[in-house]
Amino acid sequence: METDDRARTSPPPHVPADRLYDIDLYKPDGIETDGYLKAWKRLQDEKLPGLVWSPFNGGHWVATTGALIREIYTDPDRFSSQVLFIPKAAGEKYAMVPSKMDPPEHRPYRAVVDKGLNLRAIREREPQVRALAASLIDQFADRGTCDFVGEFSAEFPIQVFMTMADLPMEDSPKLRALASGMTRPGGNSPEEMAANLDRANKGFFDYVGPIIDARRGKPGTDIISLCVNTDINGAMMERQKLLGMISLLLLAGLDSVTNFMNMMMDHLGRHPETVAILRDNPEELRRAVEEMFRRFPLVAAARMIAKDIELDGVELKAGEMVLLPTALAGLDEEQNPDPWKLDFHRSRISHSTFGEGPHRCAGLHLARLETTILLEEWLKRIPTFHVVTGSEPRFESGVVASVDNVHLEWEAA
């Protein structure tokens, strides 16, 4: 395998030999030829056990079924969020809250984050989000072609979030680079990756520190002001936790949705029959969007095992890590029959794209709104389109996968 030249960690004695598999989160086998989702789905196609051990990235378990991924996400007593990223050495450098907190400590901090991201707050922003999407699409709709990444996805969700946070758009390239350094840290060893993630984490803290100081104690409706001026259990939030909270908002708002949109639009550009269904049934678009999130998952976070337990017939020891590739939840045949098919009438849509349990993604309402508006405004102006002949997306795996090189074209009006 291509990953054989990377650092390996010997499995601990309690790991059975038949549970050892070469799985590299950052370079899954087949990603360059088959793409991100098929590279991960291969683990299920090969009928691997529910839990397997990988020697890469410091050594860790991997959950390979949707049922196990959901079970682990929803059980913070056995699976802690104190370390969320693989390799563990890098995950230990991650200092953002409340995502790295366990209940009950996590709950009041999550309530603060939800103030600016709850369903009502997001619905109030719909006119502004719609106007931005329309204006971006109008810039290229009459041209008949676009670089979707450069001209839309790298602008739309980021402009939405920077506006919600009242931050200058010229800061977005720096923040996107920091986000990439967190979710796809470079390096050929856990130690190198830990150093790179730590550098990106500190970069976020250095950026948000002056912003927190400027907005604390002052009224404001932007999402940062709402957080920094809210007490926790009747007391002012510690500065270090505020640094982690505001940094988390930026990290979450600047990476995941952009790459999801790239994956989705590349697929639609290759399947005109699916575009026709969306175009001809606008009343069903919101349900279709949920099916899109099932079909195009791109997060692979992790949990730390909190205590010695047995699961799926193997022993798990406290302190070990288990990877949760959400691709293996949304594309699991046991959860979703015929999972590769985009079925907008699927009776039960099952996925873990937004996570599960107490740490389910706080930004899910915004992600759904942005995706729905993208499709609505796009199809009004560009009812049929396809990928440019010979154009192939580029994938990079990580805690959040990246998707680049999406070029679309259509018959201009």
From TrEMBL:
Pfam family, one: p450
Keyword Electron transport (UniProt): no
Database matches in InterPro entries: Cyt_P450, Cyt_P450_B, Cyt_P450_CS, Cyt_P450_sf
Superkingdom to which the source organism belongs: Bacteria
Keywords recorded for this protein, A-Z: Heme, Iron, Metal-binding, Monooxygenase, Oxidoreductase
GO MF annotation terms: heme binding; iron ion binding; monooxygenase activity; oxidoreductase activity, acting on paired donors, with incorporation or reduction of molecular oxygen
PANTHER family per the UniProt record, alphabetical: P450, PUTATIVE (EUROFUNG)-RELATED
Family: Belongs to the cytochrome P450 family.
Protein name: Cytochrome P450
Organism, scientific name: Sphingobium cupriresistens LL01
